[in-house]
Each structure stands twice: as C-alpha cells, then as structure tokens.
Design goal:
The structure is a homodimer of 213-residue chains. Chain A has ten helices and two strands. With 213 residues, chain A is an all-alpha fold. Chain A has two domains: 75 residues, Multidrug-efflux Transporter Regulator, Chain: A, Domain 2 (Orthogonal Bundle); 124 residues, no CATH class. In chain A, strands 1-2 form a two-stranded antiparallel sheet. In chain A, helix 5 packs across helix 10. The interface between A and B is large, with 76 and 76 residues.
Chain lengths: 213, 213
C-alpha cells in the first residue's frame, strides 16, 4: 500500500508517519521510484504499536525506540523479549533501601512470590523493574499505616494471574511470534487503562449494592 | 499530640504539615496557647490521605482539596461521597463523540453493563467520568484494530468486581463512616499501582510458564 492508504488504515496522519520514519520508529517502505514507497501489513501493525506507545501510553520517543528494539530482537526468547519491552516502559520512582517501609515491603513481596510459586518472578526479581515498582507501591501503603502483607496480597495476585491468563489467551489468537510480542506490549499499555476504569466502576457498583447511593 | 509527634507518626515533615494547614487540606489543631496546638487521630488519618493523594497519586493541591471536600460532605450517602471523590480524581482525555471508535466503544460498554447487571453504573453513566474513561480506553483499543467488545470485556469486568469486593471487605474492617470514605479514596489511589505491578508480574510469570524464558 502507499503512504496515503497506510495513513487512512492506521488513523495516523502522513506527517506523523514521516516523523516516525525519520525517528527510526518505523522501517522504511520498499522504494518503487524516487518519490514513492510501498508499505505492507507489518508496517501497519508496527504503526499501531508506535501509536499505542506514544499517543495512548504517552511514552517518550526515545523510550519507545528502546521498547521496539527489544520487540525486534529475534535472538531472545519470547518471555525475555516481552519482559525486556515491559522493563523499558516507565516504571516510576526507585525504592529507598534505607527506608524501613521498603525493607518490610520487599520482605512481604518475596513471601508473596514464594507462597504463590511464581518461580520466574522470583528468579528475575533482582533485575526486574516490575518487581521494583511493586515494592515501591506496597511500601507506600505500609508507610501510610495500611497493614499490607503477603496474605492480604495473595488473593489480589491470584486475580491478576487470571487476568494475565486471559491476556495471553487473547494474544494466542494472533498469528506470528513477532506479532505476539508486539501485541503483548501494546496490550500492557492499552489494557491497563481499561482495567483501572473497570476497577473504579466495580468499586462504585459494589458500594451501591452494599450501602445504597 | 503536638506537631512534632504528628510529623513523626505520619512521616510528613513539619514544614509540609504547615503548608497543608495553610492550604486548608488539614483542619487546624486545637489551640492550647499562642504557640502550641494539639492534634488528634483524625488529623493523622487525614494527613495520611493527603499524602497518598499528593505524594503517591501526584494529584495537584487544588484537586486534592476538591476530593477532600467530597469526603467531608456528610449530607451525602456513602457511595455518592466515594463516587464524588473518585470523580474528582484526574480522569484523562474527553471522548470525541464524532469518532466512530468512540461510538462503537460506548455501545460495547453499554452492552457490557447491561449484561453484567451493573445497575448503578448504568444509571450514573451519563454523569460518570469513570464511565467516560472506560469508553476512551476501549475506543483506543478499537481504533488500533483490536476487536474489544462486550463479550471479551465481561470476564475482565467480573475479575475486577472480585477485586472491588475484596477492597470493600478490607475497608469494612475500618471503624467509622468518615474513615471508610477516606480509606476508600486512599485505596483507589494506592491500590492501583499495586494492581498494575501485579498484573505485569503475572504476565511475565504466565508467559514463562507457557513459552519458557
């Protein structure tokens, strides 16, 4: 397809597509003559991912380039590619290891993962920014006087595991391996606002059922 | 307790407490003499909520003041107070009603709520910014070519309903009505980063189990 069709099918303006091409976020099309290039379904899929990261996820261009580099790295296994791409996403503040709330949070998160038998998550924990943001989030709760421990978190983690299983079931309806990693990254960025909104809506609904309006 | 103890027990510096007092986010203590005021457990609880909103949730001071106004409004029922406080939180972009993806998303969200029997959520939908952000998030998925419809969302919504039930069970271990609304608001701001981190961690774990590293 030509640039105009790529723009129409992706909903991204031709000016923005040209910007993504210049920034190396999208591979050049196959040059037909000096003024015309041809794009394929792979370009369309990549453009949707770039748009998800930048326009919906509000991720900086440099970060998006790093995420895409991991998605494209065929030398890695699928979980590592997914992990590396997730890890390149913005993760928030670093934990302060001197803080007693951080120490307590790390202990409870470790107990949680051991109790759940999440072996990969335990194995990757010294490296993983995802693990680190969980520690930071739990430390914030502990510091504010909420007694969040492994036992309290376990049912939440089980529910999130069910959500993750559905995510991967959904991804498995997609064809190629490259597409799956791409879709998984887009899914993380795009599903999270849906989950957050469903969570708030469910809080209201459940509150109304228990206590009335 | 005196200002120094309030600072120590809340982990908020005395300078920051004085700033919150000046901004009207915290009610003045009971004046004992011209230089000393006495604070109680209500001050401590409120200070934790203010800190959750501003330091963890990164919510602007003016928005925090609005949220707290709803929390304090005794003339309203509990769900409405919770809802009004949730609604005052930043909700992201407004949907563009001319956009076919927004029209499709709104139709699927309406079908979802009808199918689930979430009557309060349906009733409040023309007003609710939570409903609006769900429409925006689903529209983003549809625009990028993901076929998200009511049937696909229903199991996610059921899981989030289970999460919300746990949230409220946890809140019911807390005593007073005022405290429950306060805690519910803090919970929304503070639990969301935990849920997000657990979701990403579960995605990695499940991916490793299915496809190896």
């Amino acid at each position: 397809m030509r640039l105009a069709e790529l723009s129409e099918r992706s909903g991204v303006s031709t000016a923005t597509i040209k910007y993504y091409l210049r920034e190396g976020l999208l591979a050049p099309g196959r040059q037909i003559n000096t003024t015309t290039a041809e794009y394929d379904e792979g370009h369309l899929r990549r453009l949707r991912l770039v748009r998800a990261l930048i326009q919906v996820g509000r991720i900086p261009v440099a970060t998006a380039r790093e995420v895409l580099g991991h998605v494209d790295d065929d030398s890695l296994g699928r979980t590592i590619r997914l992990g590396a791409a997730l890890w390149a996403l913005p993760q928030g503040a670093e934990p302060d290891e001197e803080d007693p709330a951080v120490v307590a949070a790390r202990r409870e998160v470790d107990r949680l993962l051991a109790g759940l038998g999440w072996e990969t998550a335990r194995e990757l924990s010294p490296l993983s920014p995802v693990h680190r943001s969980l520690v930071v989030a739990v430390a914030a709760l502990i510091r504010l006087g909420y007694s969040w421990d492994a036992e309290l978190m376990a049912p939440y983690a089980e529910l999130m595991h069910q959500v993750a299983r559905r995510d991967l079931d959904y991804l498995e309806t997609h064809a190629s391996d490259a597409e799956r990693v791409e879709t998984a990254v887009a899914a993380t960025v795009l599903f999270e606002p849906v989950l957050t909104a469903l969570h708030r809506l469910a809080q209201e609904e459940e509150s109304a059922r228990r206590y009335g309006l």
